[in-house]
Amino acid sequence: MLHYSNMPLDRGSNFRKDPSWLKAQMSAQSKWVLVKNNQTLFIKDTPKVSYLTYQQVAHLDLTSAIFVGLNNAKHGVFALDVSDLDESVLSPLIEGAQFFDIRQYGPQVTIKYASIAALARGLCYWHATHRFCGRCGSKNRSVEAGHSRVCENENCKHPTFPRTDPAVIMVVTKVFADGVERCLLGRQAAWPIGMYSSLAGFVDPGETLEQAVAREVKEEAGIEVDNVRYVASQPWPFPSSIMLGFFAEATSEEINVDKEELDDAKWFSREDLEQFGNWHEEGEHLKLPRTDSISRYLIEHWRTNP
Question: 214 and 249 in contact (C-beta within 8 Å)?
Answer without folding.
Answer: no
